[in-house]
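Quick check before the chapter quiz. The format below is the same one you will see on the exam, so make sure you can read both the input and the output lines.
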Amino acid sequence: FRHLDPSRYRLSKINLMWFDKILKQTSAKIVIASNWRKFTPPHTQWEYGGKLYASTLEPFKEMYKGHIIGMLPPERHINKCDCLELWFEDNPWFSKLKDKYAILEDDPREGYQTHLVYAKHLVMTDYHVGLTEEDADKAIALLS
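Here is the expected output.
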């Protein structure tokens, strides 16, 4: 992480506005699938350019604590798609709702695009832009 400029990674008010739109227009709950799941405290921060930066995961969890129902397992060496499979196994009650979910993802390496089931639930966002109004509308359609 020493080579990642964390000043570029913060909670965006615009992205959160579109995320809030999804939550307001649906009864969606959140399962967090952040790559920060791979790091345990105190590895939720890093130094860059002589400054210490922290993960935005904790502030996100605090903002949306009433909506969060889980986090993907902290498996360090498998992609999020495989971690979601593990989460489904640990949460069998979710099988009743399996067709009413959306996956918001910005990393094409996570495997959702080629998964037969998950691809139809995928809202692929742009890593550099974040969640857009079009992404939010697609997620709302998937959740409706």
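If your answer matched, good. The beta strands are 30-32, 45-48, 51-54, 68-71, 103-105, 122-124.
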